[in-house]
Amino acid sequence: MDRRRFLATGGLVAGGLAVASPAPAAQATGGGLAADPALFREVNFVHDGLGLSPREYATLLDEAASKRDLPADNYSNGGVVEELETAFAKKLGKQAAMFVPTGTLANHIALRKLAGENRRVLVQAESHFYADSGDAGDVLSGLNLIPLAQGQSTLALDEVKRWVGLSASGRVPMRVGVLSIESPVRRCDHAMVDFDELQRVSRYAREQGIRLHLDGARLFNLPYHSGRGVQEYAALFDTVFVSLWKHFNAASGAILAGDSSFIEGLYHMRRMFGGSLPQAWPVAAVATQFVESYEADYARAWEATDRVLALLKPERRFKVRRVPMGTSRFFLSVTGVDATAFRTRTRQRGVWLPRPDPDTGEFAMQVNPSVLRAAPDTIAQALMAAVKA
Ligand SMILES: Cc1ncc(COP(=O)(O)O)c(C=O)c1O
Hints:
Layout: H1 3-6, H2 24-29, E1 43-44, H3 54-67, H4 79-92, E2 96-100, H5 103-115, E3 120-124, H6 128-131, H7 136-141, E4 144-148, H8 157-168, E5 176-182, H9 195-207, E6 211-215, H10 222-226, H11 230-234, E7 239-243, E8 254-258, H12 260-263, H13 267-272, H14 281-287, H15 294-312, E9 318-322, E10 329-334, H16 339-348, E11 351-352, E12 363-366, H17 376-388
Parallel strand pairs: 1-11, 3-4, 3-5, 5-6, 6-7
Antiparallel strand pairs: 2-8, 7-8, 9-10, 10-12
Helix pairs in contact: 4-14, 15-17, 16-17
The structure holds pyridoxal-5'-phosphate (PLP).
Pyridoxal-5'-phosphate binds at residues 102-104, 128, 182, 186, 215, 217, 243, 254.
């Protein structure tokens, strides 16, 4: 993929429409969908990734299929799906990885297999698996989820120890089978779990023979904020899930990584849950294009965003609120202007904001590499013009 095209700069005009002229790389292609100047231009503060439209997605897929004879998979096994699994296993420092059609199922399969006969599973109360998966682990796999650290991102070692002790000392002593941790935590505005505490918890769990799973749907955002690499995180866990549709712009999908012995034959469990897509290559072929570049692009996206915020500072009507232990989210508010009307005007200028909070008027802004499609001063100008208009 020619990344310059998808992150191309110069697409915004303050006070005008988003699409001013074709990006240089698009001009160079000389025709077809890829030359459409309306594509790959919008800066969004809404999504975890580029927020591709169907036409943009089809363009990427067309390019991937034109470059080489794209090897298709068979029921999610082999072909470009296997290539993606291998690439992620290597990135995460794990022996093997398996494609799963959703993150919800990846978490479920991981916990089900890790638990074995020890079905008591410690989770964060704010985690997706506990709060947003409809008790799937209980209903479909007989897991007993214990929700900890309510309202917090970091799960403290003391709380883990307390529950392991309580479980072991009951009239029917129970072993905790698995400890599952999500980081960053979506329900905590993507705040991350403290790395030192994670290390302590992981060490203790291993001493106790408790298996460890990481919901790292957005794992690849952590290194920029914590200074710890994805492999350092992955090493603390037996299994790791990473979303393919958040940072890697696929239409859906997840990667579940672990030891070879864990991943071997796991595709039967995937199929049991109806999760072996007959053809997963359209997902893998797009995700593959972003695996190597994402971390660097995300770091540049934050640098560009910080520059935008510095440029907005003299305009006192903008207020920025940072998230403690935050990653991809910050909050923006604008005084003296109707937040919804402001949002409509920024969109007309090619900058898409999330809906404002109905009570506070704040915008929960997501930083992603689409920010690199325009120069920081162009984005800042678009926001300032939208305040005044
Ligand atoms: C932290 C986290 N885990 C798991 C999931 C589930 O992923 P999927 O939507 O692919 O099932 C999500 C989805 O938003 C998530 O944010």
